[in-house]
Automatic annotation (TrEMBL):
Molecular function GO terms recorded: peptide transmembrane transporter activity
Keyword hit for Thylakoid: no
Domain Solute-binding protein family: 92-465
The organism of origin for this protein: Candidatus Ventrousia excrementavium
Gene Ontology CC terms: ATP-binding cassette (ABC) transporter complex; periplasmic space
Keywords of the record: Signal
GO biological process: peptide transport
InterPro entries per the UniProt record, alphabetical: Peptide/Ni-bd, SBP_5, SBP_5_dom
Signal peptide: 1-29
Protein known as: ABC transporter substrate-binding protein
Superkingdom per UniProt: Bacteria
PANTHER family according to UniProt: PERIPLASMIC BINDING COMPONENT OF ABC TRANSPORTER
Length: 553
C-alpha cells in the first residue's frame, strides 16, 4: 500500500497541472475513462498502456516534431516501408504499404503497393466506406511533401535526393533519384501516407488523424493521454483491444506506475530506478541497442555565437567527460552513456569515429578564457565577460521531460560561470522547447536525436535542420556538399570515409558544444508480448513483423 500511495500522490500532483487543459479530439471537455488498466478498462479488455515522457507537438502527419508525435502517428498511419531496429543484422527495412521493392538501376526504385490497404473508415467523417489505397494516392503524398510550400519536416531530407515520382499503374510506384543514394530507403520510411482528399476537402487531420494503420485515433486529452483502438479493416488483427499512451513527463512517476502495474511500458527508466525495476519479478529491462545522441546546441543566428572562437571557448570550458560520468554512474552495473567528445554519430552508425574525436577533445578553462579575450571579450568588475556593453549572458534551454538533459544544462552552466560566462539552465516544457528551437527562440539548448541512418543529414545539413528541433541556424556549404557526396556514394568504405570527414568538420566548427550517447533501459511488464522483436515505439505496434499484445487480462 505504501508504494501505491506514493504513486497516487505523485500522479495526483502531475494531474493537477495537466488535467485542467484536457479535451477530446474535437476540443470539447471530456471526463471519460482514461484507458489505463486500473481506470476504465472493461473486464477482459486487453489494454496496453504506455507512459510517454513526451508531450504531443503536432498530430499533422507531414509535420512531426518529436518521438511523442511519432508514437501516435506511427500507429495510425503507415509509410511505404518501416525500419526494424530489432534486426540482428542492424537496421532492416520491412514491408508496410509496399509489399516489395527493387532497384531497376542505381537511380530507380520501384515499389509494389499491396492490394489490401484501405483508408480507415471508423471514427472519422472523411470516409464512410472502404476506399482502396493505390499508387496514385502514394504519388499525391510525395508530391505534397516534395513541395517546399507545404513545410513538411521530410522535405529537407527528400528534395536533394528525389528527381521524380510516378504511379506507373494502380499498384506500382516509382521513385527516380538525382544520383545514387545510400539513404533513400531510410528517408522514404519517414514519409507517412495520408489521404490527399483531406487537403482537398479542408478536413483537419491534426484534430482527427486518418490513415491506413492498425489503430484508429480515438481520443486525445491534451497533455494527458491518447487512446487508440484497432482498425477492423487492417490486414493484421491487433493483439490488444486498446492502446493508451499516457503523457508522463516525470520519469520517476512513470517508473513507480510501472512497478504498480498501472502502465506496461516505460521508454526510459532513470538510473535511480533501475535497481527497483530489475528486482520486480513482474518486470524486465530491455536495453536500447543504439546510443541516443544528447547534445548542447548553439543558435548560430545569435550574434554571440557567430564567432567560432566563442563557440570553441564555450565547448572547451565544459568538462563533458565528467558530466557523462556523473549522469551515467550507477550501482546497477549498466553502461548508460558514452562520451561523444564533440562528435554527433553514435558508434552503431556510419561516420562515427570516437577515438579520433577523443584525440582532439580538450577541456581547458584557461584556454577558453584566452579565446574569449582574443574575440574581444573582457571581464567586467563583476567578473562576467562583456563586449561593447553587452554581457556574455545567455540561457541554455533544457527539456523538462528528461532530467538527465536538465542536469546536462545545469552542469554546463556551472562550468561556464566559473570562467566568467553568465549562463543559466532554463528548463522548458517539451512541445514549447521544440517549437522554440525550430523558430530560433533560443540561445543555447539541450536536445537529442539524429541516431538513425543518415543522422548527420538531420543534424548538420543546413537545409535539413531548418524548421526542426535541431535548428542551429548554421550554414556551411562545404559541409553540406560533403554530406551530399557521402550519401550519394554507394561504395561502403568510400562512404564511411567521407562521413567521418564530414563529422570531423562539424566537430571542428562547433556546430554543437558537445554531448554524449545515452543507452537507455526500457522498462516493461512481462505480460507484454512481441515488443522485444523490435523494441521501439517509433513504428506501429501491429504490422507484419510484430504484433504487440498483453497477456493475463
Amino acid at each position: 500500500m505504501k508504494k501505491r500511495s506514493l504513486a497516487f500522490l505523485l500522479a495526483l500532483v502531475l494531474a493537477c497541472g495537466l488535467m485542467l487543459g484536457g479535451c477530446s479530439s474535437d476540443g470539447s471537455a471530456d471526463v471519460g475513462e482514461s484507458g489505463s488498466e486500473g481506470d476504465g478498462a472493461a473486464d477482459g479488455e486487453r489494454v496496453l498502456t504506455i507512459a510517454s515522457p513526451y508531450a504531443i507537438g503536432s498530430l499533422t502527419p507531414w509535420i512531426s516534431n518529436s518521438d511523442g508525435d511519432r508514437y501516435v502517428l506511427g500507429n495510425v498511419y503507415e509509410a511505404l516501408i518501416e525500419s526494424n531496429t530489432g534486426s540482428e543484422d542492424g537496421v532492416e527495412y520491412v514491408p508496410a504499404i509496399a509489399e516489395s521493392w527493387e532497384y531497376t538501376d542505381d537511380t530507380t526504385l520501384v515499389f509494389k503497393i499491396r492490394e489490401n490497404v484501405y483508408w480507415q473508415t471508423e471514427g472519422n467523417d472523411l470516409f464512410d466506406e472502404k476506399v482502396q489505397v493505390t499508387a496514385h494516392d502514394v504519388k499525391a503524398v510525395f508530391d505534397f511533401v516534395l513541395d517546399e510550400n507545404n513545410a513538411s519536416t521530410e522535405w529537407g531530407d527528400l528534395y536533394p535526393i528525389i528527381e521524380s515520382v510516378e504511379a506507373t499503374d494502380d499498384f506500382t510506384f516509382t521513385v527516380r533519384t538525382k544520383q545514387p543514394s545510400a539513404i533513400l530507403l531510410n528517408e522514404i520510411s519517414g514519409v507517412l501516407i495520408f489521404p490527399i482528399k483531406a487537403i482537398e476537402e479542408d478536413f483537419d487531420l491534426t484534430q482527427q488523424p486518418v490513415g491506413t494503420g492498425a489503430f484508429i485515433f480515438s481520443e486525445y486529452r491534451v497533455d494527458d493521454s491518447v487512446t487508440l483502438t484497432p482498425n477492423p479493416d487492417y490486414r493484421v488483427t491487433p493483439n490488444v483491444d486498446k492502446v493508451v499512451i499516457e503523457i508522463v513527463p516525470d520519469k520517476a512517476v512513470a517508473a513507480i506506475a510501472l512497478q504498480n502495474g498501472e502502465v506496461d511500458i516505460v521508454p526510459q527508466i532513470l538510473t535511480t530506478d533501475l535497481e527497483a525495476v530489475a528486482a520486480d519479478e513482474d518486470l524486465k529491462l530491455i536495453p536500447n541497442s543504439v546510443g541516443w545522441y544528447r547534445y548542447i546546441g548553439f543558435n548560430c543566428s545569435n550574434e554571440i555565437f557567430q564567432d567560432l572562437r566563442v563557440r570553441q571557448a564555450i565547448s572547451m570550458a565544459i568538462d563533458f567527460e565528467s558530466i557523462t560520468e556523473t549522469l551515467s554512474g550507477n550501482d546497477f552495473g549498466a553502461q548508460l552513456a558514452v562520451d561523444a567528445y564533440g562528435g554527433g554519430v553514435p558508434p552503431e552508425f556510419e561516420g562515427s569515429d570516437i577515438e579520433a574525436w577523443k584525440a582532439v577533445y580538450e577541456y581547458n578553462p584557461d584556454r577558453a578564457q584566452t579565446l574569449l579575450e582574443d574575440a574581444g571579450w573582457t571581464k567586467g568588475s563583476d567578473g562576467i565577460y562583456e563586449k561593447d556593453g553587452q554581457k556574455l549572458s545567455f540561457a541554455i534551454k533544457c527539456p523538462t521531460n528528461d532530467q538527465n538533459r536538465v542536469k546536462l544544462g545545469e552542469m554546463a552552466a556551472t562550468y561556464l560561470k566559473t570562467i566568467g560566462v553568465d549562463a543559466s539552465a532554463q528548463p522548458t516544457e517539451w512541445a514549447t522547447m521544440t517549437a522554440d528551437i525550430a523558430a530560433g527562440n533560443t540561445e543555447m539548448f539541450v536536445m537529442g536525436g539524429g541516431s538513425v541512418v543518415g543522422g548527420m543529414n538531420m543534424l548538420f545539413h543546413s537545409v535539413n535542420t531548418q524548421g526542426t528541433s535541431h535548428n542551429v541556424f548554421y550554414t556551411d556549404e562545404t559541409l553540406d556538399t560533403m554530406l551530399e557526396e557521402a550519401y550519394a556514394t554507394i561504395d561502403d568504405d568510400a562512404r564511411i570515409a567521407l562521413l567521418k570527414e564530414a563529422a570531423m568538420r562539424a566537430l571542428e566548427n562547433k556546430v554543437h558544444a558537445g554531448g554524449y550517447f545515452e543507452y537507455v533501459q526500457i522498462g516493461m511488464n512481462k505480460r507484454v508480448t512481441d515488443f522485444e522483436k523490435s523494441p521501439t515505439l517509433w513504428y506501429s505496434l501491429c504490422n507484419d513483423y510484430r504484433n504487440v499484445g498483453v497477456d493475463g487480462q
